[in-house]
Amino acid sequence: MTMLEPQTDTVLQSSYQRSVANYWNNNPNDDRVNVKLGEVDGLYHHHYGIGEPDLSVLEGPESTRQERIVRELHRLETAQADLLLDSLGDVRSTDRLLDGGSGRGGTSIMANARFGCRVDGVSISEYQVGFANDQARQRGVSDSVQFHYRNMLDTGFDSRSMRGAWTNETDMYVELPDLFAELSRLLEPGGRYVCVTGCSNDVTGGRSAAVSWIDAHYGCMIHPRSEYFKAMTANNLVPIAVTDLTPATIPYWDLRTHSELATGVEKPFLSSYRDGSFQYLLIAADKVGR
Ligand code: GPP
Ligand code: MG
Fold first, then answer.
1. How does pLDDT run across 240-281, given as a tens digit for each residue?
2. Which one of 47, 68, 108, 282 is most buried, by most CB atoms within 10 A?
3. Which protein residue's CA is at the shortest distance from atom 4 of ligand 1?
């Protein structure tokens, strides 16, 4: 089946969205970190890692140390996607899932491998959509995992067509009320939304300089924690679990400082996680009502 994709000018709805698309089509930061990690096993991620690293990778022969660090960072990033998928609840092979801001496709491909169901990913980067579809083809899953050049604020998919939806570190590119309105529309009653995100901590006051540094690095707009819950409540999304993953991600960033692929963003992540001004959260929420 060939699906008609919308015209370019209906996908990008603002000059900010055009700049985000341009960023991810021509990543100005050193994208080797994502490509080299993806080459480990062909799962290409655009998110960070969680869990205890095996620090013995820093020992042993220097000639292969960098390669060992890459494998370990990749293992931690895959563990993050596994935790996100664990939080989707009961998903059957006949269900459908949506990946909002699907990047190079890693999380979608893992979801299809785990649940055997159809997964649609959307991205406003045509480069990413092409890359991710190539990955699905290479894995022989392009019938059931498809990536689309579409806007996650206006996906064009049918209302109540998805059992689950997630955004894996992508919501900082959009306004949360707009995002949650669209995801709530797409979810079946009782469907599950999982958000993994970095947010500023409004309990401790204003944004730290390090959080602004991260925004500038990626061209994003990190939201305060309170906004997630306001916007979910306003859109019939009822949190069932909130997990502070900050302690679980700090070791990933520590290990990343030892990699020759480090991009410079490691320092603001570590300082803001450590001073409490920034938090790495997983929020799972169920859609109530129609
Ligand atoms: C990028 O992942 C992730 C974002 C741009 C979202 C920002 C996330 C926050 C938690 C604030 P990446 O894998 O492309 O980044 P890098 O190239 O640094 O590994
Ligand atoms: Mg990365």
1. 999 999 999 999 999 999 999 999 999 999 999 999 999 999
2. 108
3. 169
